[in-house]
From TrEMBL:
The keyword Repressor does not apply. It comes from Actinacidiphila bryophytorum. Belongs to the SbcD family. The lineage of its organism: Bacteria, Bacillati, Actinomycetota, Actinomycetes, Kitasatosporales. This is Nuclease SbcCD subunit D. Residues 267-353 form the Nuclease SbcCD subunit D C-terminal domain.
Amino acid sequence: MRLLHTSDWHLGRSLHRVSLLDAQRAFLDHLVATVRDRDVDAVLVAGDIYDRAVPPLAAVELYDGALHALAELGVPTVMISGNHDSARRLGVGAGLMGRAGVHLRTDPATCDRPVVLHDTHGDVAVYGLPYLEPALVRDELGAERADHPAVLGAAADRVRADLATRPAGTRSVVLAHAFVTGAAPCDSERDITAGGVPSVPATLFDGIDYTALGHLHGCQALTERIRYSGSPLAYSFSEEHHRKSMWLVDLGAGGEITAERVDTPVPRRLARLRGRLADLLADPAHDKHTGAWVEAVLTDPVRPYEPMAALAERFPHILSLGFEPEGRVDDPAASYARRLAGRSDQQIAEDFVGHVRGSAPDAHEQRVLREAFDAVRAAAAAGERD
């Protein structure tokens, strides 16, 4: 059986206020063409269909058009909700859509109810594990703790229990939206830390023939059987060197896996440039970046006059400009966003406590902060479900 694994479409997202709707439309057209031209048997979409819980109408129209195109091809599609999606909104009409071959899995209670596909070698059970907010699903799944390893582990146990009741030789596929230990993140992913634990071990998926992951935006294979497709487009300059693609996975008669990367259209390359303004404007080495979306960081000792206008003459698609003067490492005017880059909400709060009080929070205070963040995250997720 040939599977096309994709995720993290983030329909409706922009890049530094530049709309990506046309690029997202081109990607979806490419996806449909790949399904048609490469004899794909099923499409797997591992969450974050939209960029926010209430997406703009234009994003909904893109989604609707893609689903109609896939349904017309007669190719089953299995989709799960991600942490950016509103599971309840995305799941509206799931029963009716299932009759057209578009199978939405947004309810944690149904994680052990697979979409059963068939080929000449028998059954393939495809399980959809939507993004699981620990505080909301702990009781429902019977997890021991309200953290990601516990709730996702409980869901995976349910999957294995159901799989054990199926005919011998049934192959298994799981879609999940999570941060698996050992994978490489980037700047455009939303922090999902809960209970102090943002990641889950890959061993949770032991016994599954193929695990199609979403959430991280870089395409990567953790093992032969556990892969992230990554986002089809770059959503931050930290993805400058990403090769955006989907996985074309062949699942053999005995669960054997072969996988090929299928590149997605690139609307415009990304370039991160750093140096003095005069050098960025004159260095011929930067000629190749004139058509790229550019992030520039100036290192001039004194901020130049109207640098954005000057840079736009050479780089008409420049989107971001920063200023980090040479020799001023401890400059108090340094970018606040730069100091916070790569830090979780919990770490930022702990740093703030230490800065104000003069001493870092102790274990009890760290737990209080963690519980507060978990409660806010759970309340926000509950609001999306209502």
